[in-house]
Amino acid sequence: MAEEQQRGGVNRKQDDKEKDVKNIVLSPSTAAAHPPPPPPTPSEEIIEHGVKINVKGTVQAPKKHEVMYNSEMMLNRSVVLCALAAYSESGLCINGQVRCLDALGATGVAGLAWARQVPKVSVVINDQLQAATQRIKENAASNNLDVEVTTEDVSVLLHQRPFDFVFLDCYGSSVPYLDAAFRNIPKHGLLAVTSTDDAALYGKATDVTLRNYGGYIVKTSYAKELAARLVLASVIRAAAKCNKGVEVVCCVALKSFITVVVRVLRGPSAANKCVRKVHRIIHCCLCEDRAFYPQTVYPIEQPYSLLSCGCRSKSAGKVAVELGPVWCDEIFDPCFCQGMLTQANNLQLSHKVIALLQTVVGEAGCRDHPSTDVSLDKENTLTEGTEDTTLVPEEEEEEEELHGQSYHSLPQSYQSLDDPDIERSPKRLKVDHPVLRSPPFYFNLHRHSPKGHDLGKINRIVEHLRRAKHKASRTHFDPEAIRTNCTLAEFTSLLVEFSRAQKLKTDCDRREQCTLGHNTKLVPKWEITSCTLTKYIYVDVGVVVQMLQRTSGSM
Fold this sequence. Notes:
Blueprint: H1 2-22, H2 28-33, E1 45-48, E2 51-54, H3 74-90, E3 99-102, H4 109-117, E4 122-126, H5 130-142, E5 148-150, H6 154-160, E6 165-169, H7 175-181, E7 190-195, H8 198-201, H9 206-213, H10 223-241, E8 244-253, E9 258-266, H11 268-275, E10 278-284, E11 290-292, H12 311-314, E12 320-327, H13 334-346, H14 351-365, H15 394-400, E13 443-444, H16 445-448, H17 458-467, E14 472-474, E15 481-484, H18 488-514, E16 520-524, E17 536-540, H19 541-554
Parallel strand pairs: 3-4, 3-6, 4-5, 6-7
Antiparallel strand pairs: 1-2, 7-9, 8-9, 10-11, 10-12, 13-15, 14-15, 16-17
Helix pairs in contact: 3-4, 3-13, 6-7, 10-11, 13-14
Protein backbone atom coordinates (compact mmCIF):
# COMPACT_ATOMS: atom_id res chain seq x y z
CA MET A 1 0.00 0.00 0.00
CA ALA A 2 2.79 2.42 0.82
CA GLU A 3 4.45 1.75 -2.56
CA GLU A 4 1.17 2.38 -4.41
CA GLN A 5 0.59 5.66 -2.54
CA GLN A 6 4.15 6.72 -3.35
CA ARG A 7 3.64 5.93 -7.07
CA GLY A 8 0.37 7.85 -7.06
CA GLY A 9 2.04 10.86 -5.56
CA VAL A 10 4.78 10.76 -8.22
CA ASN A 11 2.20 10.56 -11.03
CA ARG A 12 0.29 13.53 -9.61
CA LYS A 13 3.50 15.56 -9.46
CA GLN A 14 4.27 14.72 -13.13
CA ASP A 15 0.74 15.75 -14.17
CA ASP A 16 1.11 19.05 -12.31
CA LYS A 17 4.43 19.71 -14.04
CA GLU A 18 2.87 19.01 -17.47
CA LYS A 19 0.01 21.45 -16.72
CA ASP A 20 2.51 24.10 -15.65
CA VAL A 21 4.51 23.62 -18.87
CA LYS A 22 1.36 24.01 -21.01
CA ASN A 23 0.48 27.27 -19.27
CA ILE A 24 3.91 28.85 -19.81
CA VAL A 25 3.97 31.69 -22.38
CA LEU A 26 7.16 31.43 -24.40
CA SER A 27 9.30 34.53 -24.71
CA PRO A 28 10.47 35.62 -28.21
CA SER A 29 13.90 34.11 -27.63
CA THR A 30 12.42 30.82 -26.42
CA ALA A 31 9.98 30.73 -29.35
CA ALA A 32 12.84 31.28 -31.78
CA ALA A 33 14.75 28.42 -30.18
CA HIS A 34 11.71 26.13 -30.47
CA PRO A 35 9.97 26.94 -33.80
CA PRO A 36 6.57 25.40 -34.56
CA PRO A 37 6.48 22.13 -36.46
CA PRO A 38 6.51 22.42 -40.28
CA PRO A 39 3.16 22.18 -42.10
CA PRO A 40 2.18 18.74 -43.35
CA THR A 41 3.43 17.92 -46.82
CA PRO A 42 0.83 17.45 -49.54
CA SER A 43 -0.01 14.03 -50.90
CA GLU A 44 2.27 12.63 -53.54
CA GLU A 45 -0.52 12.42 -56.14
CA ILE A 46 -3.24 14.90 -56.98
CA ILE A 47 -6.05 14.73 -59.53
CA GLU A 48 -6.67 17.80 -61.69
CA HIS A 49 -9.04 17.83 -64.67
CA GLY A 50 -9.20 14.05 -64.64
CA VAL A 51 -5.41 13.58 -64.72
CA LYS A 52 -3.28 12.06 -61.94
CA ILE A 53 -0.15 14.11 -61.32
CA ASN A 54 2.81 13.08 -59.19
CA VAL A 55 3.79 16.17 -57.19
CA LYS A 56 6.31 14.56 -54.85
CA GLY A 57 9.25 16.88 -54.24
CA THR A 58 7.76 19.79 -56.18
CA VAL A 59 7.98 23.44 -55.12
CA GLN A 60 5.64 26.40 -55.64
CA ALA A 61 8.43 28.76 -56.71
CA PRO A 62 10.95 27.68 -59.38
CA LYS A 63 14.41 26.71 -58.25
CA LYS A 64 17.49 25.62 -60.09
CA HIS A 65 16.96 21.84 -60.26
CA GLU A 66 13.48 21.27 -58.81
CA VAL A 67 10.13 20.77 -60.51
CA MET A 68 7.45 23.38 -59.90
CA TYR A 69 3.76 22.83 -59.15
CA ASN A 70 1.47 25.62 -57.94
CA SER A 71 -1.98 24.50 -56.82
CA GLU A 72 -3.19 28.12 -56.67
CA MET A 73 -2.92 28.37 -60.47
CA MET A 74 -5.52 25.66 -61.07
CA LEU A 75 -8.13 28.31 -61.91
CA ASN A 76 -5.82 29.77 -64.54
CA ARG A 77 -5.24 26.34 -66.09
CA SER A 78 -9.00 25.78 -66.17
CA VAL A 79 -9.54 29.04 -68.07
CA VAL A 80 -6.86 28.11 -70.61
CA LEU A 81 -8.42 24.65 -71.00
CA CYS A 82 -11.78 26.26 -71.80
CA ALA A 83 -10.08 28.57 -74.30
CA LEU A 84 -8.48 25.61 -76.08
CA ALA A 85 -11.75 23.66 -76.15
CA ALA A 86 -13.63 26.68 -77.55
CA TYR A 87 -10.91 27.27 -80.15
CA SER A 88 -11.00 23.61 -81.20
CA GLU A 89 -14.78 23.75 -81.67
CA SER A 90 -14.77 27.11 -83.47
CA GLY A 91 -13.13 25.74 -86.62
CA LEU A 92 -10.79 28.74 -86.95
CA CYS A 93 -7.68 26.58 -87.09
CA ILE A 94 -6.37 26.43 -90.66
CA ASN A 95 -4.81 22.98 -90.07
CA GLY A 96 -6.65 19.70 -89.82
CA GLN A 97 -5.51 19.14 -86.23
CA VAL A 98 -4.80 21.80 -83.62
CA ARG A 99 -1.11 21.73 -82.69
CA CYS A 100 -0.79 22.75 -79.04
CA LEU A 101 2.30 23.69 -77.06
CA ASP A 102 2.62 23.90 -73.30
CA ALA A 103 5.88 25.82 -73.43
CA LEU A 104 6.71 25.74 -69.71
CA GLY A 105 5.32 22.39 -68.72
CA ALA A 106 6.83 21.71 -65.23
CA THR A 107 4.81 18.62 -64.16
CA GLY A 108 2.84 18.68 -67.42
CA VAL A 109 -0.47 19.20 -65.64
CA ALA A 110 -1.82 21.65 -68.25
CA GLY A 111 -0.79 19.74 -71.38
CA LEU A 112 -1.96 16.39 -70.03
CA ALA A 113 -5.34 17.91 -69.19
CA TRP A 114 -5.61 19.07 -72.81
CA ALA A 115 -4.89 15.58 -74.08
CA ARG A 116 -7.48 14.11 -71.70
CA GLN A 117 -10.32 16.62 -72.14
CA VAL A 118 -9.77 17.67 -75.78
CA PRO A 119 -8.63 14.47 -77.53
CA LYS A 120 -8.80 16.00 -81.04
CA VAL A 121 -5.68 18.11 -80.49
CA SER A 122 -1.99 17.21 -80.76
CA VAL A 123 -0.11 18.16 -77.59
CA VAL A 124 3.58 19.01 -77.17
CA ILE A 125 4.86 19.64 -73.63
CA ASN A 126 8.21 21.34 -73.24
CA ASP A 127 10.45 22.20 -70.32
CA GLN A 128 14.11 23.10 -70.30
CA LEU A 129 14.72 21.29 -67.00
CA GLN A 130 15.65 17.62 -67.41
CA ALA A 131 14.00 16.61 -64.15
CA ALA A 132 10.75 18.24 -65.28
CA THR A 133 10.65 16.41 -68.61
CA GLN A 134 11.27 13.11 -66.79
CA ARG A 135 8.35 13.88 -64.46
CA ILE A 136 6.14 14.74 -67.46
CA LYS A 137 6.90 11.40 -69.11
CA GLU A 138 6.09 9.54 -65.91
CA ASN A 139 2.79 11.36 -65.50
CA ALA A 140 1.86 10.77 -69.15
CA ALA A 141 2.61 7.06 -68.83
CA SER A 142 0.58 6.71 -65.62
CA ASN A 143 -2.43 8.31 -67.36
CA ASN A 144 -2.01 6.42 -70.68
CA LEU A 145 -1.81 9.67 -72.65
CA ASP A 146 0.11 10.08 -75.89
CA VAL A 147 1.93 13.43 -75.82
CA GLU A 148 5.25 14.62 -77.18
CA VAL A 149 7.76 15.76 -74.54
CA THR A 150 10.70 17.98 -75.48
CA THR A 151 13.63 19.49 -73.59
CA GLU A 152 14.33 22.73 -75.43
CA ASP A 153 14.73 26.39 -74.75
CA VAL A 154 11.31 27.99 -75.21
CA SER A 155 12.50 30.62 -77.68
CA VAL A 156 14.44 28.06 -79.74
CA LEU A 157 11.45 25.71 -79.95
CA LEU A 158 9.09 28.51 -81.00
CA HIS A 159 11.51 29.54 -83.75
CA GLN A 160 11.88 25.97 -85.02
CA ARG A 161 8.26 24.75 -85.15
CA PRO A 162 4.84 26.33 -85.74
CA PHE A 163 1.98 25.79 -83.29
CA ASP A 164 -1.69 26.76 -83.53
CA PHE A 165 -2.16 27.11 -79.78
CA VAL A 166 0.64 28.30 -77.50
CA PHE A 167 0.42 28.60 -73.72
CA LEU A 168 3.12 30.60 -71.93
CA ASP A 169 2.61 30.00 -68.20
CA CYS A 170 5.40 32.26 -67.01
CA TYR A 171 6.60 32.66 -63.47
CA GLY A 172 7.22 36.38 -63.58
CA SER A 173 7.30 38.42 -66.76
CA SER A 174 6.27 36.97 -70.13
CA VAL A 175 8.08 39.63 -72.18
CA PRO A 176 11.25 37.54 -72.93
CA TYR A 177 9.17 34.97 -74.85
CA LEU A 178 6.81 37.22 -76.82
CA ASP A 179 9.08 37.88 -79.80
CA ALA A 180 9.63 34.15 -80.36
CA ALA A 181 5.95 33.35 -79.78
CA PHE A 182 4.87 35.36 -82.84
CA ARG A 183 7.65 34.11 -85.08
CA ASN A 184 5.90 31.02 -86.50
CA ILE A 185 2.35 31.13 -85.18
CA PRO A 186 -0.06 30.82 -88.15
CA LYS A 187 -3.08 32.91 -89.07
CA HIS A 188 -5.94 32.68 -86.55
CA GLY A 189 -3.62 30.96 -84.11
CA LEU A 190 -4.30 31.43 -80.41
CA LEU A 191 -1.75 32.64 -77.87
CA ALA A 192 -2.43 32.48 -74.11
CA VAL A 193 0.03 34.42 -71.96
CA THR A 194 0.13 34.31 -68.16
CA SER A 195 2.15 36.84 -66.15
CA THR A 196 2.71 36.80 -62.39
CA ASP A 197 5.13 39.70 -61.84
CA ASP A 198 2.83 41.64 -59.52
CA ALA A 199 5.50 44.11 -58.42
CA ALA A 200 5.99 45.43 -61.94
CA LEU A 201 2.36 45.28 -63.06
CA TYR A 202 0.81 46.93 -60.01
CA GLY A 203 3.15 49.88 -59.65
CA LYS A 204 5.35 48.58 -56.83
CA ALA A 205 8.55 48.50 -58.91
CA THR A 206 8.32 51.31 -61.46
CA ASP A 207 11.83 50.76 -62.80
CA VAL A 208 11.06 47.11 -63.60
CA THR A 209 7.81 48.19 -65.23
CA LEU A 210 9.68 50.62 -67.45
CA ARG A 211 12.31 48.03 -68.42
CA ASN A 212 9.96 45.15 -69.15
CA TYR A 213 6.83 46.86 -70.42
CA GLY A 214 8.01 50.31 -71.45
CA GLY A 215 5.37 52.10 -69.40
CA TYR A 216 4.57 53.80 -66.11
CA ILE A 217 1.96 52.54 -63.62
CA VAL A 218 0.73 53.78 -60.25
CA LYS A 219 -1.56 52.14 -57.71
CA THR A 220 -5.19 52.78 -58.64
CA SER A 221 -8.62 51.32 -57.87
CA TYR A 222 -8.69 49.83 -61.40
CA ALA A 223 -5.14 48.44 -61.19
CA LYS A 224 -5.95 44.91 -62.41
CA GLU A 225 -7.41 45.95 -65.74
CA LEU A 226 -4.69 48.57 -66.13
CA ALA A 227 -2.07 45.85 -65.64
CA ALA A 228 -3.81 43.58 -68.16
CA ARG A 229 -3.88 46.37 -70.75
CA LEU A 230 -0.18 47.01 -70.08
CA VAL A 231 0.60 43.37 -70.85
CA LEU A 232 -1.52 43.58 -73.99
CA ALA A 233 0.48 46.61 -75.15
CA SER A 234 3.66 44.52 -74.94
CA VAL A 235 1.96 41.70 -76.83
CA ILE A 236 0.89 44.14 -79.57
CA ARG A 237 4.39 45.53 -80.01
CA ALA A 238 5.91 42.04 -80.18
CA ALA A 239 3.37 40.95 -82.80
CA ALA A 240 3.94 44.08 -84.88
CA LYS A 241 7.65 43.24 -85.19
CA CYS A 242 6.61 40.16 -87.15
CA ASN A 243 4.03 42.06 -89.27
CA LYS A 244 1.17 40.57 -87.31
CA GLY A 245 -1.76 41.97 -85.40
CA VAL A 246 -3.96 40.47 -82.72
CA GLU A 247 -7.58 40.36 -81.66
CA VAL A 248 -8.06 40.09 -77.90
CA VAL A 249 -10.64 37.38 -77.17
CA CYS A 250 -10.39 37.05 -73.38
CA CYS A 251 -8.64 38.65 -70.46
CA VAL A 252 -8.64 37.39 -66.85
CA ALA A 253 -6.85 39.04 -63.95
CA LEU A 254 -7.22 37.69 -60.46
CA LYS A 255 -5.15 37.86 -57.29
CA SER A 256 -2.16 35.79 -58.35
CA PHE A 257 -2.04 36.00 -62.15
CA ILE A 258 -2.98 37.91 -65.30
CA THR A 259 -3.88 35.88 -68.38
CA VAL A 260 -4.60 37.31 -71.82
CA VAL A 261 -5.76 35.24 -74.81
CA VAL A 262 -5.31 36.73 -78.29
CA ARG A 263 -6.07 35.56 -81.82
CA VAL A 264 -3.31 36.26 -84.35
CA LEU A 265 -3.98 38.27 -87.53
CA ARG A 266 -1.38 38.37 -90.30
CA GLY A 267 -0.34 41.31 -92.43
CA PRO A 268 1.17 44.80 -92.03
CA SER A 269 -2.27 46.47 -92.11
CA ALA A 270 -3.43 44.45 -89.10
CA ALA A 271 -0.18 45.26 -87.30
CA ASN A 272 -0.52 49.00 -88.00
CA LYS A 273 -4.13 49.02 -86.87
CA CYS A 274 -3.23 47.40 -83.55
CA VAL A 275 -0.22 49.60 -82.87
CA ARG A 276 -2.38 52.71 -83.27
CA LYS A 277 -4.59 51.45 -80.44
CA VAL A 278 -1.84 51.68 -77.83
CA HIS A 279 -2.35 55.01 -76.05
CA ARG A 280 -1.39 56.79 -72.87
CA ILE A 281 -3.85 57.57 -70.07
CA ILE A 282 -4.29 60.75 -68.07
CA HIS A 283 -5.17 59.81 -64.49
CA CYS A 284 -6.41 62.21 -61.80
CA CYS A 285 -4.67 61.45 -58.51
CA LEU A 286 -7.46 62.98 -56.41
CA CYS A 287 -10.69 61.42 -57.72
CA GLU A 288 -9.17 58.73 -60.01
CA ASP A 289 -10.98 59.93 -63.10
CA ARG A 290 -9.19 58.85 -66.28
CA ALA A 291 -9.27 59.18 -70.04
CA PHE A 292 -7.26 57.96 -73.01
CA TYR A 293 -5.10 60.39 -74.91
CA PRO A 294 -6.12 60.83 -78.56
CA GLN A 295 -4.09 59.34 -81.38
CA THR A 296 -2.28 62.40 -82.69
CA VAL A 297 1.25 63.58 -83.47
CA TYR A 298 0.51 67.10 -82.26
CA PRO A 299 0.98 68.17 -78.63
CA ILE A 300 -2.13 68.64 -76.50
CA GLU A 301 -2.31 72.13 -75.08
CA GLN A 302 -4.83 71.38 -72.32
CA PRO A 303 -4.63 67.70 -71.32
CA TYR A 304 -6.81 68.32 -68.25
CA SER A 305 -9.71 68.99 -70.61
CA LEU A 306 -9.82 65.25 -71.31
CA LEU A 307 -11.03 64.58 -67.77
CA SER A 308 -14.62 65.04 -66.65
CA CYS A 309 -13.71 66.06 -63.09
CA GLY A 310 -13.04 69.58 -61.84
CA CYS A 311 -10.12 68.74 -59.56
CA ARG A 312 -7.77 70.93 -61.57
CA SER A 313 -9.80 74.08 -60.84
CA LYS A 314 -10.30 73.19 -57.18
CA SER A 315 -6.70 72.29 -56.29
CA ALA A 316 -3.40 73.99 -56.89
CA GLY A 317 -0.51 72.29 -58.61
CA LYS A 318 -0.45 69.22 -60.79
CA VAL A 319 -3.18 66.74 -59.91
CA ALA A 320 -2.84 64.24 -62.78
CA VAL A 321 -0.20 61.86 -64.13
CA GLU A 322 0.31 60.06 -67.42
CA LEU A 323 0.09 56.26 -67.32
CA GLY A 324 0.92 53.65 -69.91
CA PRO A 325 1.03 53.33 -72.83
CA VAL A 326 -1.62 50.61 -72.67
CA TRP A 327 -4.06 48.86 -75.00
CA CYS A 328 -7.18 51.01 -75.43
CA ASP A 329 -9.49 48.72 -77.43
CA GLU A 330 -11.69 45.73 -76.60
CA ILE A 331 -10.38 43.08 -74.20
CA PHE A 332 -13.26 40.59 -74.62
CA ASP A 333 -14.86 38.80 -77.55
CA PRO A 334 -18.44 37.98 -76.45
CA CYS A 335 -18.83 35.03 -78.83
CA PHE A 336 -15.55 33.44 -77.79
CA CYS A 337 -16.23 34.02 -74.08
CA GLN A 338 -19.66 32.43 -74.48
CA GLY A 339 -17.96 29.46 -76.14
CA MET A 340 -15.59 29.16 -73.19
CA LEU A 341 -18.54 29.14 -70.80
CA THR A 342 -20.26 26.44 -72.86
CA GLN A 343 -17.13 24.29 -72.80
CA ALA A 344 -16.77 24.78 -69.04
CA ASN A 345 -20.29 23.39 -68.57
CA ASN A 346 -19.60 20.52 -70.96
CA LEU A 347 -16.37 19.63 -69.15
CA GLN A 348 -18.19 19.88 -65.79
CA LEU A 349 -15.57 22.14 -64.28
CA SER A 350 -15.83 23.56 -60.78
CA HIS A 351 -18.46 26.11 -59.82
CA LYS A 352 -15.73 28.70 -59.28
CA VAL A 353 -14.62 28.47 -62.91
CA ILE A 354 -18.19 28.63 -64.25
CA ALA A 355 -19.03 31.62 -62.02
CA LEU A 356 -15.92 33.44 -63.25
CA LEU A 357 -16.76 32.82 -66.91
CA GLN A 358 -20.38 33.87 -66.37
CA THR A 359 -19.14 37.19 -65.06
CA VAL A 360 -16.75 37.54 -68.00
CA VAL A 361 -19.58 36.88 -70.47
CA GLY A 362 -21.77 39.53 -68.85
CA GLU A 363 -18.82 41.90 -68.78
CA ALA A 364 -18.09 41.32 -72.47
CA GLY A 365 -21.65 42.23 -73.45
CA CYS A 366 -22.13 45.10 -70.98
CA ARG A 367 -25.74 45.79 -71.94
CA ASP A 368 -27.46 49.16 -71.70
CA HIS A 369 -31.02 47.89 -71.15
CA PRO A 370 -32.49 46.40 -67.96
CA SER A 371 -32.44 42.63 -67.59
CA THR A 372 -35.51 40.55 -66.84
CA ASP A 373 -33.60 37.39 -65.98
CA VAL A 374 -31.33 38.68 -63.23
CA SER A 375 -32.48 37.94 -59.70
CA LEU A 376 -31.90 41.22 -57.88
CA ASP A 377 -32.58 39.77 -54.45
CA LYS A 378 -29.54 37.48 -54.47
CA GLU A 379 -26.46 38.17 -52.44
CA ASN A 380 -23.61 40.12 -53.98
CA THR A 381 -21.63 37.58 -55.98
CA LEU A 382 -19.43 37.70 -59.02
CA THR A 383 -22.22 36.43 -61.26
CA GLU A 384 -25.42 38.07 -62.33
CA GLY A 385 -27.28 34.83 -62.83
CA THR A 386 -28.12 33.49 -66.24
CA GLU A 387 -27.74 36.73 -68.11
CA ASP A 388 -28.97 37.35 -71.62
CA THR A 389 -25.87 38.05 -73.68
CA THR A 390 -27.63 39.24 -76.83
CA LEU A 391 -25.65 42.15 -78.16
CA VAL A 392 -26.89 45.29 -79.86
CA PRO A 393 -25.37 45.68 -83.34
CA GLU A 394 -22.51 48.11 -83.51
CA GLU A 395 -24.28 50.23 -86.14
CA GLU A 396 -27.21 50.84 -83.79
CA GLU A 397 -24.88 51.60 -80.91
CA GLU A 398 -22.99 54.17 -82.96
CA GLU A 399 -26.24 55.92 -83.90
CA GLU A 400 -27.14 56.24 -80.22
CA GLU A 401 -23.71 57.51 -79.16
CA LEU A 402 -21.99 60.73 -80.16
CA HIS A 403 -19.47 60.21 -82.92
CA GLY A 404 -15.91 61.34 -82.39
CA GLN A 405 -15.94 61.19 -78.57
CA SER A 406 -14.49 58.63 -76.22
CA TYR A 407 -16.19 56.79 -73.41
CA HIS A 408 -14.93 59.19 -70.75
CA SER A 409 -15.04 62.24 -73.05
CA LEU A 410 -18.84 62.54 -73.27
CA PRO A 411 -20.22 65.58 -71.46
CA GLN A 412 -22.11 65.12 -68.24
CA SER A 413 -25.36 65.82 -70.07
CA TYR A 414 -25.92 66.37 -73.75
CA GLN A 415 -27.51 69.78 -73.48
CA SER A 416 -29.05 72.10 -76.01
CA LEU A 417 -26.99 75.19 -76.63
CA ASP A 418 -30.12 77.25 -77.35
CA ASP A 419 -31.55 76.91 -73.83
CA PRO A 420 -30.15 79.73 -71.65
CA ASP A 421 -31.60 78.26 -68.43
CA ILE A 422 -29.41 75.19 -68.54
CA GLU A 423 -26.02 75.49 -66.91
CA ARG A 424 -23.36 74.66 -69.46
CA SER A 425 -20.51 72.33 -68.60
CA PRO A 426 -16.94 73.49 -69.26
CA LYS A 427 -15.55 72.84 -72.70
CA ARG A 428 -13.73 69.57 -73.10
CA LEU A 429 -11.38 68.36 -75.75
CA LYS A 430 -12.94 66.22 -78.47
CA VAL A 431 -11.01 63.04 -79.14
CA ASP A 432 -11.39 60.46 -81.88
CA HIS A 433 -11.93 57.11 -80.14
CA PRO A 434 -14.31 54.40 -81.32
CA VAL A 435 -17.31 53.55 -79.17
CA LEU A 436 -16.44 50.25 -77.49
CA ARG A 437 -18.85 47.44 -76.83
CA SER A 438 -17.41 46.94 -73.36
CA PRO A 439 -16.35 50.26 -71.79
CA PRO A 440 -12.77 50.40 -70.55
CA PHE A 441 -12.16 50.33 -66.80
CA TYR A 442 -14.62 50.36 -63.93
CA PHE A 443 -15.57 52.27 -60.78
CA ASN A 444 -15.11 50.82 -57.32
CA LEU A 445 -18.16 51.52 -55.16
CA HIS A 446 -16.16 51.86 -51.94
CA ARG A 447 -13.90 54.42 -53.59
CA HIS A 448 -16.50 56.48 -55.44
CA SER A 449 -19.74 56.10 -53.46
CA PRO A 450 -20.94 59.34 -51.81
CA LYS A 451 -20.62 59.51 -48.05
CA GLY A 452 -23.68 58.93 -45.94
CA HIS A 453 -25.57 56.92 -48.56
CA ASP A 454 -26.45 53.25 -48.20
CA LEU A 455 -26.28 51.64 -51.65
CA GLY A 456 -27.34 48.04 -50.97
CA LYS A 457 -26.88 45.25 -53.51
CA ILE A 458 -24.62 45.86 -56.49
CA ASN A 459 -26.94 44.11 -58.95
CA ARG A 460 -29.64 46.67 -58.22
CA ILE A 461 -27.21 49.50 -58.90
CA VAL A 462 -26.32 47.89 -62.23
CA GLU A 463 -30.00 47.76 -63.18
CA HIS A 464 -30.45 51.39 -62.13
CA LEU A 465 -27.60 52.45 -64.43
CA ARG A 466 -29.11 50.47 -67.28
CA ARG A 467 -32.50 52.09 -66.79
CA ALA A 468 -30.69 55.42 -67.14
CA LYS A 469 -29.59 54.28 -70.65
CA HIS A 470 -25.99 53.59 -69.63
CA LYS A 471 -24.00 50.45 -70.24
CA ALA A 472 -23.28 48.66 -66.99
CA SER A 473 -22.21 45.23 -65.74
CA ARG A 474 -20.33 43.52 -62.94
CA THR A 475 -16.63 42.90 -63.47
CA HIS A 476 -14.46 39.96 -62.48
CA PHE A 477 -11.52 42.31 -61.91
CA ASP A 478 -13.14 43.67 -58.75
CA PRO A 479 -16.26 42.15 -57.09
CA GLU A 480 -17.11 45.53 -55.55
CA ALA A 481 -16.92 47.50 -58.81
CA ILE A 482 -19.15 48.25 -61.80
CA ARG A 483 -18.07 48.60 -65.43
CA THR A 484 -19.97 51.42 -67.09
CA ASN A 485 -19.66 54.09 -69.77
CA CYS A 486 -20.70 56.84 -67.33
CA THR A 487 -18.35 59.63 -66.51
CA LEU A 488 -17.31 59.89 -62.88
CA ALA A 489 -19.66 62.85 -62.27
CA GLU A 490 -22.59 60.99 -63.85
CA PHE A 491 -21.78 57.86 -61.87
CA THR A 492 -21.73 59.74 -58.56
CA SER A 493 -25.01 61.55 -59.25
CA LEU A 494 -26.71 58.29 -60.25
CA LEU A 495 -25.51 56.65 -57.03
CA VAL A 496 -27.04 59.48 -54.99
CA GLU A 497 -30.29 59.16 -56.93
CA PHE A 498 -30.32 55.40 -56.41
CA SER A 499 -29.62 55.73 -52.68
CA ARG A 500 -32.51 58.18 -52.21
CA ALA A 501 -34.87 55.95 -54.16
CA GLN A 502 -33.84 52.94 -52.09
CA LYS A 503 -34.39 54.83 -48.83
CA LEU A 504 -37.85 55.98 -49.93
CA LYS A 505 -38.78 52.46 -50.98
CA THR A 506 -37.56 51.03 -47.67
CA ASP A 507 -39.68 53.52 -45.71
CA CYS A 508 -42.75 52.63 -47.77
CA ASP A 509 -42.16 48.90 -47.26
CA ARG A 510 -41.86 49.35 -43.51
CA ARG A 511 -45.13 51.25 -43.38
CA GLU A 512 -46.88 48.57 -45.41
CA GLN A 513 -45.56 45.80 -43.17
CA CYS A 514 -46.59 47.65 -40.01
CA THR A 515 -50.09 48.42 -41.33
CA LEU A 516 -52.50 45.65 -40.26
CA GLY A 517 -56.05 45.89 -41.54
CA HIS A 518 -57.87 49.14 -42.22
CA ASN A 519 -58.26 50.36 -38.61
CA THR A 520 -54.89 52.09 -38.27
CA LYS A 521 -53.78 54.98 -36.15
CA LEU A 522 -50.52 56.88 -35.76
CA VAL A 523 -49.35 55.86 -32.27
CA PRO A 524 -46.12 57.06 -30.62
CA LYS A 525 -43.63 54.27 -30.19
CA TRP A 526 -43.08 55.08 -26.50
CA GLU A 527 -46.63 53.94 -25.77
CA ILE A 528 -45.53 50.40 -26.68
CA THR A 529 -41.84 50.47 -25.83
CA SER A 530 -39.72 52.94 -23.95
CA CYS A 531 -37.01 53.20 -26.59
CA THR A 532 -37.51 56.72 -27.93
CA LEU A 533 -39.99 59.60 -27.96
CA THR A 534 -39.26 60.86 -31.45
CA LYS A 535 -40.11 57.94 -33.75
CA TYR A 536 -43.61 56.95 -34.79
CA ILE A 537 -44.95 53.85 -36.50
CA TYR A 538 -48.26 52.70 -37.93
CA VAL A 539 -49.81 49.89 -35.86
CA ASP A 540 -53.23 48.28 -35.48
CA VAL A 541 -55.11 49.62 -32.44
CA GLY A 542 -56.59 46.19 -31.76
CA VAL A 543 -53.15 44.64 -31.58
CA VAL A 544 -52.07 47.32 -29.10
CA VAL A 545 -55.09 46.61 -26.88
CA GLN A 546 -54.33 42.87 -26.88
CA MET A 547 -50.70 43.58 -25.94
CA LEU A 548 -51.77 45.83 -23.06
CA GLN A 549 -54.28 43.23 -21.80
CA ARG A 550 -51.63 40.50 -21.83
CA THR A 551 -49.21 42.77 -20.02
CA SER A 552 -51.74 43.70 -17.32
CA GLY A 553 -52.77 40.04 -16.92
CA SER A 554 -49.20 38.90 -16.44
CA MET A 555 -48.64 41.59 -13.84
